[in-house]
Amino acid sequence: QVQLVESGGGLVQPGGSLRLSCSASGTIYASDRISWYRQAPGKVREFVASIKWRDNKKEYRDSVKGRFRISRDAAKNTIDLEMNSLEPEDTAVYYCNVHSVWGQGTQVTVSS
Questions:
Q1: Of 97, 110, 99, 79, nearest to 38 (Cα)?
Q2: Which of 20, 27, 28, 34 is the most exposed place for a label (fewest CB within 10 A)?
Q3: Residue 69 has pLDDT above 90, yes or no
Q4: In what order do the strands lie in the sheet with 18-25?
């Protein structure tokens, strides 16, 4: 079974950038879709972005389109989320997911 470990979170000012990374151990299949979700305090976990391992097809939630970019490195088994023009509303714990497997999450705080 795949195991996922996120890294790269931190504190950033509004308008700043962060790059999150999800390291996957185990086998990722061509048909798998790897996703990033986030959960803010008191809110439900929500989809942020995903990428299909086979064809690199990407999807984004509307509020991050044009600001976030998901990518994968098949050689390293990593899935990155580049986040630009960050807003306080992006503050959340960000999780990597494939099927029913979740990472432990990494905190992103956007504040001046």
A1: 97
A2: 27
A3: yes
A4: 3-7, 18-25, 78-83, 68-73
